[in-house]
Design a protein that fits this description.
With 199 residues, the protein is mainly α. The chain has two domains: 1-105, Tetratricopeptide repeat domain (Serine Threonine Protein Phosphatase 5, Tetratricopeptide repeat, Alpha Horseshoe); 127-199. It has helices at 6-18, 22-35, 40-52, 56-69, 74-86, 90-103, 108-120, 124-137, 142-154, 158-171, 176-184, 188-194.
Length: 199
């Protein structure tokens, strides 16, 4: 019986991951990491599944191993930023995300992550600036448009916030109920209780 190659194992793990079968996917990625310890891709995919299942410390271990193998991998740098943010390690989250931006300056995701980091710190002016940069990279990203609008609202810029929210609704009508909630909200504090995170 032929032994499955690590690359094939990872492809199957990704299929299972997308199907929501996280435990089976993790078993396969762990096997691939053991069979090919030099593979930063195997470690990255393993970490992505760990993040999805909220095992952030285990994800961080795999990501740090991956970035040591391939220091210029923008995907790994971005996931390091995401994982650090989930662990409330805000300085590290910004540092990793800035490195991801330096590697892939036209990629929206790291900009969004930096904006999310500032949002978590309640620095809404900086958050809105970075989130808007994400939109500049991916203009049709409705969730990012909405995040900018919500962040501007929390910084007291209600008129500007309404404009961004309208753009989000135009791209994805599913955001309409959130826009209506904002327009009916009397104070930023009330609005913040509804939305605890940027996405």
């Amino acid at each position: 019986m032929a032994v499955q190659r690590p690359a094939d194992t990872l492809d199957e793990a990704l299929r299972l991951f997308r199907a929501g079968e996280f435990a089976r996917a993790l078993t396969l990625t762990a096997s691939a990491c053991a069979a090919a310890p030099w593979s930063d891709r195997a470690l990255l995919i393993h970490a992505i599944i760990r993040i999805r299942t909220q095992h952030f410390e285990l994800a961080m271990v795999a990501l740090l191993r991956a970035i040591a193998l391939n220091p210029g991998n923008g995907d790994t740098l971005h996931k390091l930023g995401q994982c650090a943010l989930e662990m409330n390690q805000y300085a590290d989250a910004e540092s990793w995300s800035l490195r991801a931006v330096s590697v892939r300056p036209n990629w929206a995701d790291p900009y969004f992550m930096i904006g999310s980091n500032y949002y978590a710190l309640r620095n809404y002016a900086a958050a809105a600036e970075w989130l808007a940069r994400a939109v500049a990279c991916r203009p049709n990203w409705a969730a990012a448009q909405f995040a900018v609008g919500r962040t501007l609202f929390l910084s007291g810029q209600r008129s500007a916030a309404s404009s961004w929210l309208s753009k989000a609704v135009a791209l994805d009508p599913g955001f309409r109920k959130h826009e209506e909630f904002l327009l009916a909200t009397l104070t930023p504090d009330d609005f913040e209780t509804w939305f605890a995170e940027p996405m």
